[in-house]
Structures are given as structure tokens and as C-alpha cells.
Write a structure and sequence with these properties.
heterotrimer, A mainly alpha (about 110), B mainly alpha (about 170), C mainly alpha (about 200), A: about 110 residues, mainly alpha, C: about 200 residues, 2 domains, about 0% strand, globular
Chain lengths: ~110, ~170, ~200
């Protein structure tokens, strides 16, 4: 009797599993990947706020890999670029400003 | 044969959950053959450092100690876990498992030879029944099924050669 | 809950934590191996004579459980499947490796993982087996030079079941259904052969 119950149990589980699996589709997998992508963006944004640009970029890239149509991912990459490139640009502008006052202070030495 | 062992389906589900947790944490499943390969490389290295130049063993030794590796640590865990259960559950028994009147020397020979063949097999297949059959099939690798079916097939095919070794074994 | 699994590969903790956890996970596996009866060749070798189906029952249950959980995890967006490690499929090496493995397994009654638990429970043949494995590994190091072209041939990369059937590599739905059916098929085969072997009486 125990043998028959186990066999019936196994057949039921097999049937249930197959029916459940067949009622999903590739679209569900894609949807799952979009979810994953959003979560990666959330993580990327958190890292961006904390100025961990390396990690932020890594997460943003993963988001793109999971869902290439995720526009927010590209926005995050742009934000990272602005945050990392902009300070460098600003610094070089400062350097251009500094020498000028000196030149003005050396007007007529009469040489 | 059912002395105090878990129901195999229950054990399988528990194993499956543990395997899943392992994937969640480490991104990979349980393994074993890789650990033995690394141990061999490390032991060989301590005897003859030239082995580091070997095209295959060199890969394990490249990062310094071949034993600093996830699978090696996990296998150490397997040993410890089994040891623990063996002692608290009274499952420790020193024996050379074989059919009742089968000569021990033959059993030793086949155990060794079998291990030898399996070593080569796992290097070609990049895994063993743990790494390929269990992990690979659970993670939907098609190669794992090729390995698993070939292994079972070959086993069934040559089983008759070793009938005497296993006859009536408990 | 914004968790993404696997933890380690999404950078949630570093390698030393991962190694420590490896030991803990291994301990769990070791305990299960003994409790399920895998720590003796007396339960493993008879599988090849269809006298014992326990190995098939455990393996199939495990594969179904794990693959279902992975599938669900991906559907709900918690698991990054691209980060789950699958060794590359080398078609012919896997096939030849499988053949050798099967022969070695029925001959010795062990596989590497179970043998480790076997040693811990006092099985001398498990110890001899592992020594044989080490000898074989060393032998492989020596001959690698000559066979490496074969060993690295027919590399299909990350070859998922879906990809093998002509679908997109990450089509987990196809992979899952096929895995489910194939696993149950294997179990059914073993149960039927076991019934036949037992009705034939002891051999």
C-alpha cells in the first residue's frame, strides 16, 4: 500500500510540476530580468549617492545586461560620467584662472 | 537497508534546498573532484616545485597555494560534517565494503583503479556527479546531461564485470 | 527587498567570507550524505545493478528542488542567472569523461564527494579510492601535454538546455520543463528497472 501511495504521489507531483512549468513562458523570464534590472538600478543609484562610482558603474552595467531597454540604466551612466568627469574639468579651469592675476601685477617694470 | 536513514525523497529535497542556498551565496554549487585535483597539485608541489611549470597543475599553483579555493574549503566541510554525524549517530564503522567472501586485495585494487579512472574522467568532464550531475543539471547545463547519461550508461554496461564484488553487499 | 543573488558574485561580501561559508555549507552536505546513506559504497554500486534506487531518488529530488527554486528566483527577479556558474560544455571530453566515470564508479563504488564522507565514516575502500583519484590526477598532469588538444576540443561555452534546443540561451522556461521531464524520466526508468531486478530475485 505504501508503495502505491508513493507512486501516486510522485505522478501527481510530476503532473503538477509540468502543468505549472508549461503555463509559464519566456516572457515571464524576460519580465523577471526587467525586475532584476530595476533592482540593479536601485543599487547603482545608492552607490552613486555614496560616491562609490566604481560600484555604481558596475551595477549600472549589470542592469543594462539584464535589460538593454532599461533607459534609467543609461541615465545612471551619464550621471556617473558627469560626477567623475566634471570635477576634473572644473579643476583645469581653475588652473587657467590662477596665473592671470600675477601677470596683471607685473605691468610696468620699465624694462 | 533502511536502518536509520532518511527517506530518499526527503533527503533529496533537503539536499536540493541546500544546493540552492549554496548557489545563492557562492554562485556555484557543491563540488569535490576539483578539491582533490588541487590537493594533488599542492602535495606534488611540496615534493617537487618543478610541477608548477606543468601546463595543467600550474593553473592551480599560479595563485600561490592551490588549496585556497572555495571547493577545497567546502570539501573540508563535507569531511567534518560527515565525521560529526558519524560519531553522534554511531555511523562510524571501519570496514572494507565488499561482498562477504570477496578477497580484500581485489577490492583494494578495484577501489584504487576506479579512483584512477574517475580522476581522468573528472578532468575531462570538468566535474563529477556532484559538480556536473547535481549542480549542472539544476542550473540547466546541457553538458551535464551528456556527462550524466554517458556515465550511467557506461556503468550499466560494464556492471556485469564486477558482480562478484558487490553480490549481496549491505 | 532589493536583494540580488548570488550574493558573492554581486559583491556583497569578500572572498574570505565566501571561503568561511564554504566550510559551513560543506558541513551541511557532509551531514546529509551520511544521513541519506551515501557514505558507503554498499549503497552506491548496487545502483548499477538496479538493486538500489536510493541514489537516483535523492539525485532527482535534489535536481527538481534546486532547479525549481532557481527558476522561480529568476521569474521574480531575485536571481541573476548570468551569474550562476556553469562550466563550459566540452562536448566530446564530457562524453568520454562520462564513460570513464561510469566505469570507475561501478568498479570502485564511489564518486569523489561521497568518498570524502565515506572516509569520515571509516570506509577503508573510500580512502583507497581517494588515493587512486590522487594518483590519477597526477597521471593526468603528466599526460596533459599530449591530450590537451582533445581535452579542450568542442567547446560550446555556456551551453544551456535551451540553447542546445535552439532557443535563446537564457530561456529558463524551456530549460526547466525539459529538466523536469528528463529528471522524472530518469527516476521512472530506475524505479521500473529496480522492480524488474527485484522480481528476478537475488543475483
Amino acid at each position: 500500500m505504501g508503495k502505491i501511495t508513493s507512486i501516486i504521489g510522485l505522478v501527481l507531483i510530476a503532473a503538477a510540476g509540468i502543468i505549472a512549468a508549461l503555463s509559464t513562458s519566456y516572457e515571464d523570464v524576460i519580465k523577471g530580468k526587467k525586475e532584476l534590472s530595476s533592482t540593479y538600478i536601485t543599487k547603482a543609484e545608492t552607490e552613486l549617492e555614496n560616491k562609490n562610482y566604481g560600484k555604481a558603474e558596475e551595477f549600472a552595467k549589470q542592469a543594462i545586461q539584464a535589460d538593454p531597454s532599461n533607459k534609467k540604466a543609461y541615465e545612471v551612466i551619464v550621471a556617473i560620467t558627469k560626477a567623475t568627469v566634471a570635477p576634473v574639468v572644473a579643476k583645469s579651469e581653475e588652473k587657467k584662472e590662477a596665473p592671470k592675476p600675477k601677470r596683471r601685477a607685473m605691468p610696468d617694470l620699465g624694462c | 537497508m533502511n536502518k536509520n536513514y532518511w527517506n530518499p525523497y526527503v533527503a533529496g529535497v533537503v539536499l536540493g534546498v541546500m544546493l540552492f542556498i549554496t548557489f545563492l551565496i557562492a554562485g556555484q554549487g557543491l563540488g569535490a573532484s576539483g578539491a582533490v585535483a588541487r590537493a594533488t597539485a599542492q602535495v606534488a608541489f611540496s615534493i617537487d616545485p618543478e610541477i608548477a611549470k606543468n601546463a595543467y597543475a600550474g593553473k592551480y599553483l599560479a595563485s600561490g597555494n592551490a588549496l585556497i579555493n572555495w571547493t577545497v574549503f567546502e570539501v573540508v566541510g563535507i569531511f567534518l560534517g560527515a565525521l560529526f554525524i558519524a560519531f553522534i549517530g554511531g555511523k562510524f564503522k571501519l570496514e572494507l565494503t565488499r561482498s562477504k567472501n570477496y578477497p580484500a586485495i581485489k577490492r583494494i585494487f578495484f577501489a584504487f583503479l576506479g579512483g584512477f579512472l574517475i580522476a581522468i574522467a573528472t578532468r575531462l568532464a570538468r566535474g563529477c556527479t556532484s559538480g556536473q550531475a547535481l549542480d549542472g543539471a539544476s542550473a540547466f547545463s546541457a553538458g551535464s546531461w551528456i556527462f550524466m547519461l554517458a556515465a550511467f550508461g557506461a556503468g550499466f554496461l560494464v556492471a556485469f564485470l564486477f558482480k562478484k564484488q558487490w553480490k549481496g553487499v549491505e | 527587498m532589493d536583494f540580488i543573488f548570488p550574493f558573492f558574485t554581486t559583491g556583497l561580501f569578500d572572498n574570505s567570507v565566501n571561503l568561511f561559508l564554504a566550510i559551513l555549507l560543506g558541513i551541511g552536505f557532509g551531514m546529509i550524505f551520511v544521513k541519506a546513506g551515501f557514505s558507503t559504497s554498499a549503497h552506491i554500486a548496487p545502483v548499477f545493478y538496479f538493486k538500489n534506487v536510493m541514489v537516483a531518488q535523492v539525485m532527482v529530488s535534489a535536481i527538481i528542488t534546486t532547479s525549481t527554486l532557481i527558476f522561480l528566483g529568476v521569474l521574480f527577479g531575485y536571481i541573476d542567472y548570468s551569474k550562476i556558474y556553469i562550466p563550459a560544455t566540452y562536448l566530446w571530453p564530457y562524453f568520454v569523461g562520462g564513460l570513464l566515470f561510469g566505469i570507475g564508479m561501478v568498479m570502485s563504488g564511489w564518486c569523489p564527494g561521497t568518498a570524502v564522507s565515506g572516509v569520515a565514516t571509516g570506509k577503508i575502500d573510500a580512502l583507497i579510492f581517494l588515493l587512486g583519484v590522487m594518483a590519477g590526477m597526477y597521471f593526468y598532469f603528466d599526460i596533459y601535454e599530449y591530450i590537451k588538444d582533445f581535452a579542450n576540443s568542442t567547446n560550446l561555452g555556456r551551453y544551456t538546455i535551451a540553447k542546445a534546443l535552439g532557443y535563446e540561451e537564457d530561456n529558463l522556461q524551456v530549460s526547466y520543463v525539459v529538466t523536469f521531464i528528463a529528471s522524472f524520466g530518469l527516476l521512472a526508468f530506475m524505479l521500473i528497472m529496480n522492480k524488474i531486478a527485484r522480481s528476478k530475485g537475488d543475483a
